[in-house]
Design a protein that fits this description.
The protein has about 270 residues and is α/β, with parallel strands linked by helices. It contains ten helices and nine strands. It folds into two domains: about 200 residues, Spore Coat Polysaccharide Biosynthesis Protein SpsA, Chain A (Alpha-Beta Complex); about 70 residues, no CATH class. InterPro entries: Glyco_trans_2-like, Nucleotide-diphossugar_trans.
């Protein structure tokens, strides 16, 4: 089996159907689909179970389980342990494949020999807008996440050696892929748009927490990838920006963003004198 597609969900009755449909409608059929539910109290599992016959008729292996977990990464680790595909990808509730031909375009006539992970572009959307973003080059990972996890296929037997560190609530994916990169695992970037990635509902508080986890992860690797003075300044400025974002009008935030850029430039210039 070529691919294991994994969806983790909890009380996702409003979004799970779109995710499942994007999987079921793939033109490339050499995959299995695993849904790991966190013991939802709404109609999520009713919707999931209603698809069993359609996957069976399409001759696609379809497995689902609902049980309590300690968080999204705990659920993702559980699902990974069940995967049988050569490659795995995580397409959680509220996300979906960009088109019905994603798997076919990525895997048909491509074996990616010598690579441990393959990542592409993604379509980022909220309630109002959609934008396609190309992921950044993998060598930027010591400074930031180059892609979203909904756009990366990883060799399952390789990823089981890493998994998600469940001490992180928001950035365990960054931690896992950073560790892979630091260990010399090979990543291949492709131009294909892989997923629709939702940013709806992201709060200022969660963004600050994600920044704190990102800083912690980068410090963990600082012996191998030293942290520059510039990056430390950017951390402080970004945290101040995120703290103010939900409390200050957008017109004022535009002025502050410009002031931040000028401030960083002057500090860096002074530091090099």
């Amino acid at each position: 089996m070529k691919v294991s597609i994994i969806t983790v969900c909890y009380n996702a009755e409003k979004t799970i159907q779109e995710t499942i449909e994007s999987v079921l409608n793939q033109t490339y059929k050499d995959f299995e689909y695993i849904i790991q539910d966190g013991s939802s109290s709404d109609n999520t599992m009713k919707i999931v179970e209603e698809y069993a016959e359609r996957f069976r008729n399409a001759r696609i292996k379809y497995r689902y389980e609902s049980e309590p977990d300690t968080g999204i990464y705990n659920a993702m680790n559980k699902a990974t342990s069940k995967a049988n595909g050569e490659w795995c990808i995580y397409m959680n509730a509220d996300d979906s494949f960009y088109s019905n031909r994603v798997l076919q375009e990525v895997f048909e006539d491509n074996d990616y020999e010598g690579y441990d992970a393959v990542f592409g572009a993604y379509c980022r959307h909220d309630e109002k807008n959609k934008y396609v973003f190309q992921s950044e080059a993998i060598d930027i990972i010591p400074r930031k996440m180059p892609f979203v996890h909904q756009t990366i296929f990883v060799r399952t037997n390789v990823f089981r050696n890493y998994g998600y560190d469940e001490q992180y609530r928001l950035c365990a994916d960054y931690d896992a892929f950073f560790k892979m990169y630091a260990d010399g695992r090979r990543f291949r970037q492709i131009p294909n748009v892989v997923s629709n990635y939702s940013v709806s509902g992201a709060s200022g508080e969660s963004n600050i927490d994600a920044l704190e986890e990102t800083i912690q992860i980068q410090k963990k690797h600082s012996d191998q990838y030293p942290i520059s003075f510039e990056r430390r300044i950017r951390w402080k400025m970004k945290k101040l920006y995120l703290m103010a974002k939900n409390q200050i009008p957008e017109s004022t935030m535009i002025i502050l963003r410009k002031a931040k850029a000028v401030f960083i430039t002057r500090i860096l210039k002074k530091d090099t004198m």
